[in-house]
Amino acid sequence: MIAQIYTAPVLEPIDLASLKIHLRLDSGTFDGNLTLTQSLAYGSKAIANNYTTHVGVGIDVLGKQADVIVHAGINQATGTVDTKIQEADVLAGPYTDYTGGAFTQITTANDNADYKLPYTGTKQYIRTASKVLLAACEFGTSILVNAATTAEDDLLTAIITGARQHVEDITRRALLTQTWDYYLNGWPDKDHIKLPFGNLATVSSVSWKDTDGMETTLTVTTDYLVETNSYGIGRIVLPYGESWPSDILYPSNPIKIRFVCGWTAAANIPKTIIAALKLICSDLYTNREGQVASAFLFKENPAVQRLLASSRLFDEF
Questions:
Q1: Count of helices and strands (H, E) across the chain
Q2: Which tens digit of pLDDT belongs to each residue from 20-38?
Q3: Does residue 89 sit in the same domain as residue 210?
């Protein structure tokens, strides 16, 4: 078996803010932990029956705790303001509405107040978009981020990635969405091919090369079926009455299967795995100068082993 990463995960199971809370780290001051950034400048906003006229600037909140605030001033007679949170993977967008991110409508009955909603999504950038009806209204929006900056942020980020990779090694499982190329030297003598790492999401392609290096891509449903099998091992299965190609194969890695696996969000990862990750991160942070041979090394930590026991995959490939 040869498996090569094609696209690494873009998220980690634990974000930097969560690890700092677990380790009880902060900047040392209350003010140093918080950053308030303006998204939409405060002022009188004209009537606009859309969510594209009064749009705020995107703010980076990846790996941070964030609250979105609407600062409401005076609504002119009958005026109303509807504001929602939008999210995106990149600053330029496209932005989409964040589920649960719609604020209570502001009217003349509840203006001159501040309103707050938490953002707990997984996108890197968020902003506000507002609609003004019936009369001009005064308001603005800002984003409050709780993300203590310390001199050890780079170290902590590396520890999170290292802990995730180590847990993937122990469990033989991909934790968060990632794409792999899986190479075989020949077709199996069975009617199926098992794919490593569990949590199979999709099979992007199955292709093979003949003796001349000519590549052929098989067709899903016609040439093969896909079994995702939830948390277990995914499989590629021959349809009834079909067989694998019988041509002579290219001598080096002739069969390539590209597939996507892993949980789609950190919130979906079992809590036992998250707990094990935090224990490993604590060990690596506490013993950053080098570990000594003891039963408390994270590789041998019995608590880590017990937490991960039910998540291990034991299939052979």
A1: 5, 17
A2: 888 877 666 666 678 899 9
A3: no
